Amino acid sequence: MELFYYMVFGALAAVVAALELSKSNKDRINTSSAFNSFKNNYLLVYSLMMAGDWLQGPYVYYLYSTYGFGKGEIGQLFIAGFGSSMLFGTIVGSLADKQGRKRACVTYCITYILSCITKHSPQYKVLMIGRVLGGIATSLLFSAFESWLVAEHFKRGFDQQWLSLTFSKAIFLGNGLIAILSGLFGNLLVDSLNLGPVSPFDAAAIFLAIGMAVILSSWTENYGDPSENKDLLTQFKGAAVAIASDEKIALLGAIQSLFEGSMYTFVFLWTPALSPNDEEIPHGFIFATFMLASMLGSSIAARLLARNSLKVESYMQIVFVISSASLLLPILTNFLVVTPTVKGGGISFAGCLQLLGFCTFEACVGIFWPSIMKMRSQYIPEEARSTIMNFFRIPLNIFVCIVLYNVNAFPITVMFGMCSIFLFMASVLQRRLAAIADKPKTQEWTMLKEKDAEDEELDAA
To answer: What InterPro entries does the database record attribute to this sequence (predicted)?
Structure first.
């Protein structure tokens, strides 16, 4: 069965290469040299930030286990990370709109570097602090950088369609190529050079420090809401009003939470799904295959986003349906394919079918990221972009914490069924969003901004 892994990886690599090399003028967006310089600078920083994140991922659980912690204690550490992202991350991430997005990106680097340093300690309390810092950093990674990019893009007067080019390239590199290279580099540090399980975290800290230096030397500051007298509670209220008053923003938040919740659940489920009887599977190689599938998705997304005639709200309905169907495979194979009961051995036939389905899901993930970024840039008001994006992550983090806490309480087929239902619900909500996409924004958000402006004038008087 080892040949099967190489065949899947080779087929995906060939398709990605063919797509990238066969781009016609229809698939390309004509841009300016100033934009290309700006885009390349952002892609460099984003790639360094993602390298700092991807290097840590495969070794977090392994490091905790080498320190002698059991499954329950490690589970608590993971829950602390997602809980921190939900509580503290929402506050810190929201401050980016008021205190500056560049400053928030630098804070991400510092926070994550400190989190990496804590990994040197075998003390549970120190590791818990590291997870809390990591949770805060994750919120900043998925809000501050995108918020800075969107604001800076329009501040410099670049065409709106060019933004989708940066999004698709960022996902192609940061969530694809960099993930694969980080996995190989981490494997080199730990297994080949025998530097120990903490070495990837040290390497991550170095990449984050380099990225921070680039940010400090080449980025300019931008803000969401520059008003001086608006406190955090008022900012939260404004974001809540924007979500509640504009159905498009509310739908976007629900779609994002449903998809990302299913995606993070999949991360915990794919290993036991492919090796239910402790079959020997090459985890690192499969992870690299998933990332290659994600690169395929982002390459497809680049072509879709380059076409003015094709709306992102339309094709994402199909993407969600395909992703929902792909996660039904573990359930179907459980009923239709006879699985061996012998422990160990290589991957089963059912496992091979599931792997193909999982690669399809990862391709959908690759399409999802640049597409959701494009929709967020269209619908979320600039004044509260980071705040609203972090609001979107609250239900996601609650969901992941519940899944982590109850991961052993339900059969794996039930968990996959739940994810498939969520993804189908995302498709239904996406259909509704497509139907109302051209409707003008409601007045509540505008009225709130006008009221704030009046309050500022009164305070000044």
So the answer is: MFS_trans_sf, MOT2/MFSD5
